[in-house]
Structures are given as structure tokens and as C-alpha cells.
């Protein structure tokens, strides 16, 4: 069968999880400094919660819209490639 998924051993799954653990440490270290960066850029301490919530709320609104548009878009470059290019800019 061409579509059969390969079976992964315990150690292959362990290695993938261990790699993602390192990525999560990187994200945690980066996020630990975001409040200080916001304050350095001039944000008031009382408004930090609004800044932390802004990105998830924006994603909640924008992602379904872009998903709908990309599902209904057909160009000579493909369905999603124009959105990848615009998102990369």
C-alpha cells in the first residue's frame, strides 16, 4: 500500500518529543522576557494584559477569514501559495 503510514518505534517517538521539549524551552525563555520588552517600549504596567491578549484575539478573528478566503481562491500559482507569500511579507 502506497498510503500506509510507517510504524514508529518508542525511541523514534521519544526523540521527536525530546526535540520539541527543546523548542518549548526556547519559547518559554522568549516569553519570559516579553513583559519587560513591552515596558522598555513604553507600555504601562497596567496595560500589559491587553498586550498579551491582543495576539490571540487577532488570530481568533483573522485566521478563519484567511482560511475561508484561501479555501475559495484558485490562482495560477495555486490555492494557498499567494497567502503564504503575503504572510511572509
TrEMBL record:
Which segments cross the bilayer? Answer: 12-29, 49-70
Primary place of residence?
Answer: membrane
Output the Gene Ontology cellular-component terms.
membrane
Topology within the bilayer: Multi-pass membrane protein
The record's subcellular location field reads: Membrane
Answer yes or no on keyword Transmembrane helix: yes
Tell me the keywords, alphabetical order: Membrane, Transmembrane, Transmembrane helix, Transport
Q: Per its record, how is this protein called by name?
A: MFS transporter
Which species does this protein come from? Bowmanella dokdonensis
**What is this organism's lineage?**
Bacteria, Pseudomonadati, Pseudomonadota, Gammaproteobacteria, Alteromonadales
